[in-house]
Design brief:
Elements (H helix, E strand, L loop, with lengths): L11 H4 L12 H8 L9 H4 L7 H9 L3 H11 L3 H7 L21 H11 L15 E5 L3 H12 L3 E5 L8 H4 L8 H13 L3 E3 L10 H5 L4 E4 L5 E2 L12 E3 H9 L18 E5 L3 H12 L4 E5 L11 H9 L3 E3 L2 E8 L5 E14 L5 E5 L5 E4 L2 E4 L3 E2 L3 H4 L25 E3 L2 H4 L4 H20 L5
Parallel strand pairs: 1-2, 1-4, 2-3, 4-16, 6-14, 7-8, 7-14, 8-9
Antiparallel strand pairs: 5-15, 10-11, 11-12, 11-13
Protein backbone atom coordinates (compact mmCIF):
# COMPACT_ATOMS: atom_id res chain seq x y z
CA UNK A 1 0.00 0.00 0.00
CA UNK A 2 1.34 3.41 -1.01
CA UNK A 3 1.87 6.02 1.66
CA UNK A 4 -0.46 9.01 1.83
CA UNK A 5 0.81 11.73 -0.52
CA UNK A 6 2.06 14.94 1.08
CA UNK A 7 0.85 18.09 -0.62
CA UNK A 8 3.59 20.64 -1.41
CA UNK A 9 3.35 23.91 0.52
CA UNK A 10 5.01 27.31 0.55
CA UNK A 11 7.90 27.50 2.99
CA UNK A 12 6.67 29.06 6.29
CA UNK A 13 9.38 31.73 6.23
CA UNK A 14 8.24 32.82 2.77
CA UNK A 15 4.48 32.48 3.09
CA UNK A 16 4.26 34.54 6.29
CA UNK A 17 5.18 37.54 4.12
CA UNK A 18 2.56 37.08 1.38
CA UNK A 19 -1.10 36.29 0.79
CA UNK A 20 -0.49 33.58 -1.83
CA UNK A 21 -2.02 30.16 -1.32
CA UNK A 22 -0.16 28.04 1.25
CA UNK A 23 -1.02 24.57 -0.08
CA UNK A 24 0.13 24.21 -3.68
CA UNK A 25 -1.92 21.21 -4.83
CA UNK A 26 -1.11 17.68 -6.02
CA UNK A 27 0.76 16.90 -9.20
CA UNK A 28 -0.96 14.48 -11.61
CA UNK A 29 1.26 11.63 -10.41
CA UNK A 30 0.53 12.40 -6.77
CA UNK A 31 -3.21 12.48 -7.45
CA UNK A 32 -3.18 9.16 -9.32
CA UNK A 33 -0.99 7.53 -6.63
CA UNK A 34 -3.23 8.87 -3.85
CA UNK A 35 -6.39 7.71 -5.65
CA UNK A 36 -4.85 4.25 -6.02
CA UNK A 37 -4.90 3.95 -2.22
CA UNK A 38 -8.71 3.83 -2.20
CA UNK A 39 -10.02 0.33 -1.45
CA UNK A 40 -13.29 0.95 -3.36
CA UNK A 41 -15.40 -0.33 -0.46
CA UNK A 42 -18.73 -1.93 -1.37
CA UNK A 43 -20.40 0.01 1.45
CA UNK A 44 -18.34 3.21 1.57
CA UNK A 45 -18.55 4.93 4.95
CA UNK A 46 -16.85 8.01 3.50
CA UNK A 47 -20.03 8.91 1.59
CA UNK A 48 -22.01 8.81 4.83
CA UNK A 49 -19.57 11.35 6.25
CA UNK A 50 -20.12 13.81 3.38
CA UNK A 51 -22.86 16.40 4.08
CA UNK A 52 -23.51 16.85 0.34
CA UNK A 53 -23.40 13.09 -0.43
CA UNK A 54 -20.68 13.06 -3.10
CA UNK A 55 -20.13 9.52 -4.46
CA UNK A 56 -16.53 9.54 -3.30
CA UNK A 57 -15.25 6.11 -4.45
CA UNK A 58 -16.67 6.72 -7.94
CA UNK A 59 -14.80 9.98 -8.55
CA UNK A 60 -11.64 8.61 -6.95
CA UNK A 61 -11.67 5.59 -9.26
CA UNK A 62 -11.84 7.95 -12.25
CA UNK A 63 -8.74 9.77 -10.91
CA UNK A 64 -6.88 6.49 -10.43
CA UNK A 65 -7.62 5.74 -14.10
CA UNK A 66 -6.38 9.19 -15.14
CA UNK A 67 -9.88 10.24 -16.25
CA UNK A 68 -10.03 13.65 -14.56
CA UNK A 69 -12.93 14.94 -16.67
CA UNK A 70 -15.21 12.10 -15.53
CA UNK A 71 -14.10 12.64 -11.95
CA UNK A 72 -15.15 16.31 -11.84
CA UNK A 73 -18.41 15.55 -13.65
CA UNK A 74 -19.22 12.93 -11.01
CA UNK A 75 -18.49 15.35 -8.16
CA UNK A 76 -20.62 18.11 -9.67
CA UNK A 77 -23.68 15.87 -9.69
CA UNK A 78 -23.84 16.51 -5.94
CA UNK A 79 -21.45 19.39 -5.24
CA UNK A 80 -21.46 22.68 -7.16
CA UNK A 81 -18.45 24.06 -5.24
CA UNK A 82 -15.73 21.37 -5.36
CA UNK A 83 -12.69 23.66 -5.60
CA UNK A 84 -13.89 25.47 -2.47
CA UNK A 85 -14.72 22.29 -0.54
CA UNK A 86 -11.39 20.74 -1.43
CA UNK A 87 -9.67 23.65 0.31
CA UNK A 88 -11.71 24.60 3.35
CA UNK A 89 -13.89 21.65 4.40
CA UNK A 90 -12.81 19.79 7.56
CA UNK A 91 -12.49 16.47 5.76
CA UNK A 92 -10.50 15.03 8.66
CA UNK A 93 -13.66 15.01 10.81
CA UNK A 94 -16.10 14.05 8.03
CA UNK A 95 -15.48 11.89 4.96
CA UNK A 96 -11.85 11.10 5.77
CA UNK A 97 -12.70 10.26 9.38
CA UNK A 98 -14.92 7.44 8.07
CA UNK A 99 -12.33 6.02 5.64
CA UNK A 100 -11.59 2.35 6.38
CA UNK A 101 -7.86 2.95 5.90
CA UNK A 102 -7.80 4.78 9.24
CA UNK A 103 -7.89 1.37 10.94
CA UNK A 104 -4.40 0.52 9.68
CA UNK A 105 -2.87 3.87 8.85
CA UNK A 106 -4.08 7.09 7.28
CA UNK A 107 -7.19 7.83 5.22
CA UNK A 108 -7.28 8.66 1.53
CA UNK A 109 -6.80 12.43 0.98
CA UNK A 110 -10.35 12.85 -0.30
CA UNK A 111 -10.45 16.62 -0.02
CA UNK A 112 -7.16 17.11 -1.79
CA UNK A 113 -8.23 14.83 -4.63
CA UNK A 114 -11.45 16.82 -4.95
CA UNK A 115 -9.42 20.02 -5.12
CA UNK A 116 -7.09 18.49 -7.72
CA UNK A 117 -9.78 17.60 -10.26
CA UNK A 118 -11.63 20.87 -9.66
CA UNK A 119 -8.44 22.79 -10.43
CA UNK A 120 -7.73 20.60 -13.44
CA UNK A 121 -11.12 21.25 -14.98
CA UNK A 122 -10.80 23.46 -18.04
CA UNK A 123 -14.38 23.48 -19.31
CA UNK A 124 -16.83 24.84 -16.76
CA UNK A 125 -19.77 24.23 -19.05
CA UNK A 126 -22.97 22.74 -17.74
CA UNK A 127 -25.04 19.71 -18.46
CA UNK A 128 -28.07 20.01 -20.74
CA UNK A 129 -30.56 22.22 -18.95
CA UNK A 130 -33.74 20.47 -17.80
CA UNK A 131 -37.20 21.44 -18.98
CA UNK A 132 -38.42 24.55 -17.17
CA UNK A 133 -40.81 23.87 -14.30
CA UNK A 134 -42.35 27.32 -14.57
CA UNK A 135 -41.66 27.89 -10.87
CA UNK A 136 -39.51 30.67 -9.45
CA UNK A 137 -37.35 30.60 -6.31
CA UNK A 138 -35.62 33.50 -4.55
CA UNK A 139 -32.39 32.80 -2.67
CA UNK A 140 -31.35 35.37 -0.06
CA UNK A 141 -27.57 35.24 0.33
CA UNK A 142 -24.85 33.88 -1.96
CA UNK A 143 -22.79 32.05 0.63
CA UNK A 144 -22.23 28.28 0.58
CA UNK A 145 -25.82 27.44 1.59
CA UNK A 146 -27.38 29.82 -0.96
CA UNK A 147 -25.11 28.80 -3.83
CA UNK A 148 -25.73 25.10 -3.19
CA UNK A 149 -29.50 25.51 -2.96
CA UNK A 150 -29.48 27.66 -6.11
CA UNK A 151 -27.45 25.13 -8.10
CA UNK A 152 -29.58 22.15 -7.09
CA UNK A 153 -32.85 23.97 -7.76
CA UNK A 154 -31.63 25.17 -11.16
CA UNK A 155 -30.74 21.58 -12.09
CA UNK A 156 -34.35 20.56 -11.44
CA UNK A 157 -35.67 23.19 -13.85
CA UNK A 158 -36.73 25.98 -11.52
CA UNK A 159 -35.96 29.63 -12.27
CA UNK A 160 -33.62 30.84 -9.50
CA UNK A 161 -32.59 34.36 -8.50
CA UNK A 162 -29.98 35.05 -5.80
CA UNK A 163 -30.13 38.33 -3.86
CA UNK A 164 -26.71 39.22 -2.38
CA UNK A 165 -26.32 42.18 -0.01
CA UNK A 166 -22.62 42.79 -0.71
CA UNK A 167 -20.91 43.91 -3.90
CA UNK A 168 -19.34 40.48 -4.47
CA UNK A 169 -20.80 36.99 -4.33
CA UNK A 170 -19.67 34.19 -2.04
CA UNK A 171 -20.65 35.31 1.44
CA UNK A 172 -18.15 34.09 4.03
CA UNK A 173 -16.14 32.43 1.22
CA UNK A 174 -15.32 35.94 -0.04
CA UNK A 175 -15.31 38.20 3.01
CA UNK A 176 -14.20 35.73 5.68
CA UNK A 177 -11.65 33.23 4.37
CA UNK A 178 -8.21 34.65 3.47
CA UNK A 179 -6.62 34.45 0.05
CA UNK A 180 -3.86 32.13 1.31
CA UNK A 181 -6.49 29.51 2.18
CA UNK A 182 -9.07 30.16 -0.51
CA UNK A 183 -8.08 32.34 -3.48
CA UNK A 184 -10.87 34.65 -4.65
CA UNK A 185 -10.42 33.36 -8.22
CA UNK A 186 -11.53 29.94 -7.00
CA UNK A 187 -14.69 31.38 -5.47
CA UNK A 188 -15.38 33.41 -8.62
CA UNK A 189 -14.99 30.29 -10.79
CA UNK A 190 -17.46 28.26 -8.73
CA UNK A 191 -19.92 31.18 -8.65
CA UNK A 192 -19.67 31.41 -12.45
CA UNK A 193 -20.48 27.70 -12.69
CA UNK A 194 -23.67 28.26 -10.68
CA UNK A 195 -24.61 31.17 -12.94
CA UNK A 196 -24.05 28.98 -16.01
CA UNK A 197 -26.73 26.67 -14.66
CA UNK A 198 -29.14 29.51 -15.36
CA UNK A 199 -29.12 31.20 -11.95
CA UNK A 200 -29.53 35.00 -11.89
CA UNK A 201 -27.29 36.82 -9.38
CA UNK A 202 -28.25 40.28 -8.13
CA UNK A 203 -25.56 42.06 -6.09
CA UNK A 204 -25.98 45.04 -3.73
CA UNK A 205 -29.48 43.76 -2.95
CA UNK A 206 -30.22 44.01 0.76
CA UNK A 207 -33.37 42.06 1.53
CA UNK A 208 -35.10 43.70 4.46
CA UNK A 209 -34.25 47.11 3.01
CA UNK A 210 -34.67 46.84 -0.77
CA UNK A 211 -37.56 44.41 -0.42
CA UNK A 212 -38.88 42.19 2.35
CA UNK A 213 -39.33 38.43 2.26
CA UNK A 214 -43.07 39.05 2.02
CA UNK A 215 -42.42 41.17 -1.09
CA UNK A 216 -40.41 38.29 -2.58
CA UNK A 217 -43.24 35.84 -1.93
CA UNK A 218 -45.47 37.97 -4.15
CA UNK A 219 -42.98 37.49 -7.02
CA UNK A 220 -41.58 34.01 -6.33
CA UNK A 221 -43.11 30.65 -5.46
CA UNK A 222 -40.63 29.95 -2.65
CA UNK A 223 -37.81 31.69 -0.77
CA UNK A 224 -34.63 30.24 0.73
CA UNK A 225 -32.82 32.19 3.45
CA UNK A 226 -29.07 31.60 3.39
CA UNK A 227 -28.15 34.85 5.11
CA UNK A 228 -25.35 33.42 7.23
CA UNK A 229 -24.16 34.69 10.60
CA UNK A 230 -22.44 38.01 10.05
CA UNK A 231 -23.17 39.75 13.36
CA UNK A 232 -20.06 39.65 15.59
CA UNK A 233 -20.11 38.52 19.20
CA UNK A 234 -18.04 40.53 21.68
CA UNK A 235 -16.53 39.82 25.12
CA UNK A 236 -18.49 42.57 26.91
CA UNK A 237 -15.48 43.70 28.91
CA UNK A 238 -14.15 47.19 29.63
CA UNK A 239 -12.14 48.74 26.81
CA UNK A 240 -13.72 46.94 23.87
CA UNK A 241 -14.61 50.28 22.30
CA UNK A 242 -11.02 51.52 22.22
CA UNK A 243 -9.35 52.33 18.91
CA UNK A 244 -7.45 49.34 17.55
CA UNK A 245 -10.01 46.77 18.69
CA UNK A 246 -11.67 44.91 15.81
CA UNK A 247 -14.24 42.18 15.52
CA UNK A 248 -12.83 39.38 13.38
CA UNK A 249 -15.70 40.03 10.99
CA UNK A 250 -14.65 43.62 10.34
CA UNK A 251 -10.94 42.80 10.24
CA UNK A 252 -11.30 39.92 7.76
CA UNK A 253 -13.84 41.77 5.62
CA UNK A 254 -11.44 44.70 5.28
CA UNK A 255 -8.56 42.38 4.41
CA UNK A 256 -10.36 39.93 2.12
CA UNK A 257 -13.28 41.63 0.41
CA UNK A 258 -12.11 45.23 0.55
CA UNK A 259 -8.39 44.45 -0.03
CA UNK A 260 -7.12 46.75 2.68
CA UNK A 261 -3.82 44.87 2.69
CA UNK A 262 -3.11 46.79 -0.54
CA UNK A 263 -3.69 50.19 1.15
CA UNK A 264 -3.03 52.92 -0.02
CA UNK A 265 -3.58 51.45 -3.53
CA UNK A 266 -7.03 50.48 -2.26
CA UNK A 267 -9.14 52.96 -0.29
CA UNK A 268 -9.93 50.76 2.71
CA UNK A 269 -7.48 51.43 5.58
CA UNK A 270 -6.58 48.97 8.33
CA UNK A 271 -4.40 49.33 11.40
CA UNK A 272 -1.28 47.22 10.89
CA UNK A 273 -0.19 46.57 14.46
CA UNK A 274 3.22 45.50 15.68
CA UNK A 275 1.85 43.54 18.65
CA UNK A 276 -1.43 41.87 17.74
CA UNK A 277 -3.58 39.76 20.07
CA UNK A 278 -6.36 37.56 18.68
CA UNK A 279 -8.96 36.27 21.14
CA UNK A 280 -10.44 32.88 20.20
CA UNK A 281 -9.37 29.43 19.06
CA UNK A 282 -11.39 28.60 15.96
CA UNK A 283 -10.60 28.82 12.25
CA UNK A 284 -11.62 32.49 12.21
CA UNK A 285 -9.08 33.22 14.96
CA UNK A 286 -6.36 31.40 12.99
CA UNK A 287 -7.30 33.32 9.82
CA UNK A 288 -7.21 36.64 11.68
CA UNK A 289 -3.86 35.92 13.29
CA UNK A 290 -2.24 34.78 10.05
CA UNK A 291 -3.59 37.85 8.20
CA UNK A 292 -2.20 40.15 10.90
CA UNK A 293 1.20 38.49 10.52
CA UNK A 294 1.15 39.02 6.76
CA UNK A 295 0.22 42.66 7.27
CA UNK A 296 3.55 43.14 9.03
CA UNK A 297 3.05 42.45 12.74
CA UNK A 298 6.19 41.66 14.74
CA UNK A 299 4.31 39.54 17.27
CA UNK A 300 0.95 37.82 16.93
CA UNK A 301 -0.52 36.02 19.92
CA UNK A 302 -3.65 33.87 20.10
CA UNK A 303 -5.36 33.98 23.49
CA UNK A 304 -7.70 31.07 24.16
CA UNK A 305 -9.44 30.17 27.42
CA UNK A 306 -9.16 26.39 27.04
CA UNK A 307 -6.22 24.05 26.34
CA UNK A 308 -4.67 22.83 23.09
CA UNK A 309 -6.84 19.68 22.94
CA UNK A 310 -9.94 21.88 23.02
CA UNK A 311 -8.89 24.23 20.19
CA UNK A 312 -11.82 24.08 17.70
CA UNK A 313 -9.77 25.11 14.65
CA UNK A 314 -8.71 22.54 12.07
CA UNK A 315 -5.47 20.78 12.99
CA UNK A 316 -3.93 21.90 9.69
CA UNK A 317 -4.67 25.57 10.42
CA UNK A 318 -3.20 25.34 13.92
CA UNK A 319 -0.09 23.65 12.52
CA UNK A 320 0.30 26.30 9.81
CA UNK A 321 -0.09 29.10 12.36
CA UNK A 322 2.60 27.62 14.58
CA UNK A 323 4.95 27.08 11.63
CA UNK A 324 4.55 30.76 10.75
CA UNK A 325 5.61 31.87 14.22
CA UNK A 326 2.25 32.73 15.82
CA UNK A 327 2.30 32.37 19.61
CA UNK A 328 -0.40 30.60 21.62
CA UNK A 329 -1.38 31.69 25.14
CA UNK A 330 -3.70 28.87 26.17
CA UNK A 331 -5.80 28.63 29.35
CA UNK A 332 -5.89 32.42 29.25
CA UNK A 333 -8.97 34.66 29.22
CA UNK A 334 -9.27 38.46 28.76
CA UNK A 335 -10.81 40.50 31.58
CA UNK A 336 -10.33 44.05 30.27
CA UNK A 337 -8.64 46.08 27.53
CA UNK A 338 -6.42 49.03 28.44
CA UNK A 339 -5.76 52.14 26.38
CA UNK A 340 -3.77 55.40 26.43
CA UNK A 341 -4.88 59.01 26.78
CA UNK A 342 -5.86 59.10 23.09
CA UNK A 343 -8.06 56.01 23.45
CA UNK A 344 -5.76 53.69 21.51
CA UNK A 345 -5.34 50.19 22.88
CA UNK A 346 -2.00 49.46 24.60
CA UNK A 347 -2.55 46.22 26.54
CA UNK A 348 -5.02 43.44 27.17
CA UNK A 349 -5.36 42.23 30.74
CA UNK A 350 -5.94 38.49 31.11
CA UNK A 351 -6.35 35.88 33.80
CA UNK A 352 -5.11 32.30 33.77
CA UNK A 353 -7.70 29.54 33.62
CA UNK A 354 -7.95 25.90 34.67
CA UNK A 355 -10.30 23.22 33.37
CA UNK A 356 -13.10 21.76 35.49
CA UNK A 357 -15.89 19.37 34.55
CA UNK A 358 -17.05 19.24 30.89
CA UNK A 359 -19.72 21.82 30.05
CA UNK A 360 -22.83 21.43 27.86
CA UNK A 361 -20.67 21.22 24.72
CA UNK A 362 -18.80 18.22 26.13
CA UNK A 363 -15.65 20.26 26.60
CA UNK A 364 -13.99 20.97 29.95
CA UNK A 365 -15.32 24.12 31.54
CA UNK A 366 -12.65 26.81 32.05
CA UNK A 367 -12.52 28.56 35.44
CA UNK A 368 -10.41 31.58 36.46
CA UNK A 369 -7.35 31.11 38.66
CA UNK A 370 -7.54 33.77 41.35
CA UNK A 371 -4.59 36.16 41.53
CA UNK A 372 -3.18 35.24 38.11
CA UNK A 373 -4.04 38.48 36.31
CA UNK A 374 -1.40 39.71 33.87
CA UNK A 375 -1.07 42.06 30.89
CA UNK A 376 -0.06 41.45 27.29
CA UNK A 377 1.18 44.36 25.19
CA UNK A 378 -1.06 45.00 22.17
CA UNK A 379 -1.70 47.81 19.70
CA UNK A 380 -4.32 45.76 17.79
CA UNK A 381 -6.81 43.32 19.32
CA UNK A 382 -9.09 41.10 17.24
CA UNK A 383 -12.10 39.46 18.86
CA UNK A 384 -12.83 36.10 17.18
CA UNK A 385 -15.21 34.33 19.54
CA UNK A 386 -18.14 33.74 17.20
CA UNK A 387 -20.97 35.39 15.29
CA UNK A 388 -24.76 35.36 15.23
CA UNK A 389 -27.25 35.97 12.39
CA UNK A 390 -27.98 39.50 11.24
CA UNK A 391 -31.46 40.36 12.60
CA UNK A 392 -32.53 42.41 9.54
CA UNK A 393 -34.39 39.67 7.66
CA UNK A 394 -36.14 38.10 10.68
CA UNK A 395 -37.11 41.55 11.96
CA UNK A 396 -38.81 42.43 8.67
CA UNK A 397 -40.50 39.07 8.09
CA UNK A 398 -43.83 38.38 9.76
CA UNK A 399 -44.55 34.82 10.88
CA UNK A 400 -40.88 33.75 10.91
CA UNK A 401 -39.99 32.21 14.25
CA UNK A 402 -36.50 32.81 15.63
CA UNK A 403 -34.64 31.59 18.72
CA UNK A 404 -33.27 33.67 21.60
CA UNK A 405 -29.90 33.48 19.84
CA UNK A 406 -31.40 35.08 16.72
CA UNK A 407 -31.23 31.96 14.56
CA UNK A 408 -34.14 31.02 12.29
CA UNK A 409 -36.24 28.09 13.52
CA UNK A 410 -36.32 25.45 10.77
CA UNK A 411 -36.96 21.73 10.41
CA UNK A 412 -34.26 19.34 9.18
CA UNK A 413 -35.47 19.90 5.62
CA UNK A 414 -35.14 23.68 6.04
CA UNK A 415 -38.86 24.49 6.25
CA UNK A 416 -39.51 27.47 8.53
CA UNK A 417 -42.67 28.50 10.35
CA UNK A 418 -43.63 30.66 7.35
CA UNK A 419 -45.21 28.84 4.41
CA UNK A 420 -43.02 28.84 1.32
CA UNK A 421 -39.94 30.05 3.22
CA UNK A 422 -36.97 27.76 3.87
CA UNK A 423 -33.66 28.43 5.59
CA UNK A 424 -30.31 26.78 6.10
CA UNK A 425 -26.67 27.22 7.04
CA UNK A 426 -25.41 29.61 9.69
CA UNK A 427 -28.72 31.51 9.70
CA UNK A 428 -30.20 28.39 11.34
CA UNK A 429 -27.29 26.79 13.20
CA UNK A 430 -25.18 29.81 14.07
CA UNK A 431 -21.58 29.95 12.92
CA UNK A 432 -20.50 26.53 11.54
CA UNK A 433 -18.53 25.03 8.64
CA UNK A 434 -18.83 25.72 4.93
CA UNK A 435 -19.72 22.12 4.13
CA UNK A 436 -22.43 21.91 6.81
CA UNK A 437 -24.03 25.02 5.29
CA UNK A 438 -23.83 23.39 1.86
CA UNK A 439 -25.46 20.26 3.24
CA UNK A 440 -28.30 22.36 4.62
CA UNK A 441 -28.72 24.12 1.28
CA UNK A 442 -28.93 20.75 -0.45
CA UNK A 443 -31.59 19.41 1.93
CA UNK A 444 -33.63 22.59 1.60
CA UNK A 445 -33.42 22.43 -2.22
CA UNK A 446 -34.92 18.94 -2.14
CA UNK A 447 -37.72 20.10 0.15
CA UNK A 448 -38.40 23.19 -1.97
CA UNK A 449 -38.54 21.05 -5.10
CA UNK A 450 -41.14 18.78 -3.46
CA UNK A 451 -43.10 21.81 -2.23
CA UNK A 452 -43.18 23.29 -5.75
CA UNK A 453 -44.18 19.99 -7.35
CA UNK A 454 -47.12 19.73 -4.99
CA UNK A 455 -48.15 23.35 -5.42
CA UNK A 456 -51.57 23.72 -7.07
CA UNK A 457 -51.43 24.92 -10.65
CA UNK A 458 -52.50 28.57 -10.84
Amino acid sequence: MLERQKMPEQDPKVRRTNFKEVALGFTEKQAIDEAARCLQCKKPKCVEGCPVEVKIPVFIKHIANGDFDSAIKEIKVDNALPAICGRVCPQETQCEASCILNKKGTSVSIGRLERFVADMEKDHGTREKPHSSGKKVAIVGSGPAGLTAAADLAKTGHSVTIFEALHAAGGVLTYGIPEFRLPKKIVETDVEYVKKLGVTLLLDSVIGKLETVDDLLMQFDAVFLGTGAGLPVFLNIDGENLNGVYSANEFLTRVNLMKSFLFPDHDTPIRKGKNVVVVGGGNVAMDSARCALRLGADNVTIVYRRGEKELPARAEEIEHAKEEGIKFRLLTNPVRIIGDAKNWVTHIECINMYLCEPDGSGRCKPMPLAGSEHRIEADVIIIAIGTSPNPLVPRTTGGLEITKQGTVVARKDGATTKTGVYAGGDAVTGSATVISAMGAGKKAARAIDEYLKNMPVA
